[in-house]
Design brief:
Elements: H1 2-46, E1 50-55, E2 60-63, H2 65-71, H3 75-78, H4 83-86, E3 89-90, H5 103-110, E4 114-116, E5 124-127, E6 134-146, E7 149-159, H6 161-197, H7 205-235, E8 244-246, H8 248-265, E9 269-273, E10 282-284, H9 286-302, E11 310-317, E12 322-328, H10 350-355, H11 363-373, E13 377-382, E14 388-395
Parallel strand pairs: 9-11
Antiparallel strand pairs: 1-2, 1-7, 3-5, 4-6, 5-6, 6-7, 8-10, 11-12, 12-14, 13-14
Helix pairs in contact: 6-7, 7-11, 8-9, 9-11
Length: about 425
């Protein structure tokens, strides 16, 4: 009996020691976790940009102090609520931003990061809940992936009111400067045409060659000026949009016919795949949409390998009530790390600069602005050195009229025919 009691006592002491050690370890681990959580909160609170974390259905899980201050919303009021309901966003004209156009929806539906800055075509506006005032924001929305499955999203944003003011001032300056440049450039072109046509007497072959180079350079300068004017007109919101019933197939054929000289010069072919069904008339501003398709086709030819390229234009019916125009090339492609910036103003990729030294970097920026102003959508798929495909989705309801006081200036990248020179 004594031996049994002695053994029981030893076992009890050992178990008690183990429990004490276990409890001490648990307490130490809990303290460590609490310290790490406190440190995480300090880091989040120190981030200068607003940060919002949602789950896979768009409910707010976390919001840092900067976001609370920018939005005028305490976390306690929004946690567990859907972000589209709790945090208002509006268009530039003050209309509510539809849920499918919000950056968090675009990121989770596509599985790709969405980035907007003061240089991108789309500006997102948040509304402060306490003052009901809005502010423009640079937004980055990224899906959170776990084992290839989207489990949530992270959105960071900051107020870019000052940047937008500076950008608007630059746009006004560019518009003013461009208007002033157009008059002397037009006069230069006119005098060059007179010289080349022999109105002032015969010229030598060498003089003709020099004048033709001057004519090409002057024409290119006029195109750049016109592009800058178009940017200012689009950004000011004063662009006139006049939709009229448009037949897409003849419309695309006309643009292809315009661009055929450039295709022949590069020994390239343009293939147009038409839909089997009859395409209904869609109300669109033909001048605006022509600029988009013309720019996509011109880019496809310029950035393809000269002498063996084929550009494929396809018109097909989309999954929803829309028609899609795709322009596919087999050219230099776009590197993955710069794809989020491809629609930024003045942005050109390194391989594009090497392939074509001339370029303003605003063609795609203008195209995206026109597309969005026309109730349409534009996107692309690309792989470096394997080509690019751009898509423009046009809804059957077409564009909405806009009573602005400015019209878009047609920009043709090709040099017009040279006047016939009288050689002496």
């Amino acid at each position: 009996m004594g031996l049994f009691y002695f053994l029981f006592l030893i076992i009890s002491v050992a178990v008690a020691g183990a429990l004490i050690g276990f409890n001490f370890g648990v307490a130490r681990q809990s303290r460590r976790l609490a310290e790490e959580q406190a440190l995480d909160k300090v880091f989040l609170a120190s981030i200068g940009d607003g940060l919002i974390v949602t789950d896979n259905v768009g409910k707010i899980m976390l919001m840092n102090r900067a976001a609370e201050e920018l939005l005028g919303l305490p976390l306690a009021e929004v946690v567990g609520k859907y972000v589209v309901d709790a945090i208002p966003m509006v268009e530039s004209n003050g209309a509510p931003l539809s849920p499918e156009r919000r950056p968090i929806h675009l990121a989770t539906s596509s599985g790709q990061k969405v980035i907007s800055t003061s240089a991108t075509t789309t500006t997102y506006y948040f509304v402060r809940s306490d003052t009901k005032t809005r502010f423009p924001a640079a937004v980055t929305a990224a899906p959170v992936l776990l084992k290839q499955k989207i489990i949530g999203a992270v959105v960071t944003f900051r107020d870019i009111t000052r940047e937008k003011e500076i950008d608007e001032a630059k746009t006004e300056f560019v518009s003013l400067a461009s208007h002033q440049l157009r008059t002397p450039l037009t006069a230069i072109n006119w005098y060059i045409e007179m010289l080349l046509s022999g109105d002032t007497g015969p010229i030598t072959d060498e003089q003709k060659s020099f004048l033709q180079e001057v004519y090409k350079g002057s024409h290119r300068m006029i195109q750049i000026v016109n592009e800058f004017l178009n940017v200012s007109r689009l950004e000011s919101g004063r662009l006139k949009i006049e939709p009229k019933p448009l037949e897409l197939i003849p419309f695309i054929n006309d643009i292809i016919k315009e661009i055929e000289p450039l295709a022949r010069a590069r020994n390239c072919t343009i293939i147009f795949n038409q839909p089997p069904e009859k395409v209904p008339l869609i109300p669109l501003d033909g001048v605006l949409m022509r600029q988009v398709v013309h720019n996509l086709l011109t880019n496809a030819l310029r950035y393809s390998t000269e002498g063996k390229c084929a550009v494929v234009v396809t018109l097909f019916k989309g999954q929803s009530k829309d028609y899609v125009i795709s322009v596919k090339d087999d050219g230099i492609g776009i590197a993955k790390d710069v794809q989020p910036r491809i629609f930024e103003k003045f942005f050109r990729t390194e391989n594009a600069i090497h392939a074509v030294t001339e370029g303003s970097g605003i063609g795609l920026y203008i195209s995206k602005m026109i597309v969005e102003a026309s109730n349409a959508k534009i996107w692309f798929q690309s792989e470096e050195n394997k080509g690019t495909t751009f898509y423009v989705s046009i809804p059957l309801i077409g564009s909405t009229p806009h009573g602005g006081d400015r019209q878009l200036i047609a920009v043709d990248a090709s040099t017009p025919p040279m006047p016939t020179a009288k050689i002496g």
